[in-house]
Amino acid sequence: MSKSPKLEEAQRSPADKTPTKSLFREYAEAFVIAAIFLRFANTFVVQTFYIPSGSMENTLLVGDHLFVNRFIFGPTTPGLGHVLPGRLIRRGDIVVFRSPQDPKLDLVKRCIGLPGDTIDLRDKQLYINDKKVEDASYAIHTDATLYPDQPYYDGDGRIRDNFGPFTVPADSYFCMGDNRDRSFDSRFWGTLPAYMVKGRASTIYWSYGGETSDGHWPGWGTKLRQIAETAYGFFGRTRWSRTFLTPR
Predict the structure, then answer these.
(1) What is the CATH number of the domain that holds 57?
(2) 76 within a domain of the structure (yes/no)
(3) Known catalytic residue at 21
(4) Alpha helices (runs of H) in 77-219, residue ranges in sequence order
(5) Is 55 tagged catalytic?
(6) Is the distance from CB of 83 to CB of 75 less than 8 angstroms?
(7) Which of 13, 22, 109, 124 is catalytic?
(8) Whole-prediction pTM value?
């Protein structure tokens, strides 16, 4: 004679019973897993970034939103170098990095000099290792003024147009904006330590011609206004021709 279902249930030990998860717990676990995955991807694989200034024009425009490939170089840490495999940074790569002056701020520039390179800027003309660089394909000059390399010019103009010769130290890079006359870069704040590099600019996924944040929190009132204006002008101000463009 078979036992009744009630008797079988009564003879089971407490350890045989599997507790049922609540709906809240299932959603909470899924959220935690998703957050961990996104954090990992944002740290090691891909990150989003937007252009707040014109220092990289005309390669990158104000309002361009980018995917940054964080895996290509492999993340680095001070004293340990690359902690995951990746290729070395090449001259001409457009890199995103933490500002050496303000590590909370991310910047984007073009890598001009590698460790050991000698950088020399003479009357706005760039020389690397005593060889003239023909970089008209991406570098532009928007200011016709040429500041001579004379002692009586002590301001930024002299450094902007005449710099070096300077040898890039080990584990560092020399970076400049493509808009050479409107870029605050290695000519002014020095070389970029390798461990501060976050990745390479990969793809423009959205380009917006309206107001763009400068990277600092403007307050709730201004932020809500910016969101409303972006939503209102999304179709009219989006530069559709730049969508999925790969910056070179």
Answers:
(1) 2.10.109.10
(2) yes
(3) no
(4) 156-161, 186-189
(5) yes
(6) yes
(7) 109
(8) 0.74
36 within some domain: no
In a domain, 199, yes or no: yes
Residues 6+ away with beta carbon under 8 Å from 157: 145, 147
Tokens of 203: 């793809």
Which pLDDT tens digit goes with each residue over 24-47? Answer: 666 555 545 544 444 544 444 457
Q: Put the strands of the sheet holding 106-113 in their side by side order.
A: 46-50, 64-69, 197-207, 94-98, 106-113, 172-176, 192-193
* Burial (CB count within 10 angstroms: exposed 0-12, middle 13-18, buried 19+), residue 238: middle
Residue that is written with structure tokens 């009357």 in the block = 123
Q: Is residue 125 a part of any domain in this protein?
A: yes
Residue 58: is the preceding peptide bond cis (ω within 30°)?
yes
Q: Write the CB contacts of 3 (distance below 8 Å, at least 6 apart in sequence).
A: 11
Domain count, the chain: 1
Domain hosting residue 107, numbered range: 46-207
Length, in residues, of the chain: 248
Q: Which of 2, 13, 17, 55 is catalytic?
A: 55
Backbone angles phi, psi at 173, to 5 degrees: -135, 150
Task: For the sheet with 118-122, list strands across it.
Answer: 131-132, 125-128, 118-122, 163-167
> In this predicted model, what pLDDT tens digit does every residue of 194-204 receive, in sequence order?
999 989 998 99
> What is the Cα–Cα distance from 174 to 122, expressed in whole angstroms?
16
Burial 88-117 (b: 16+ CB within 10 A, else e): ebeeebbbbbbebeeeeebbbbbbbbbbee
Tokens of 3: 């036992």
Tokens of 66: 């980018």
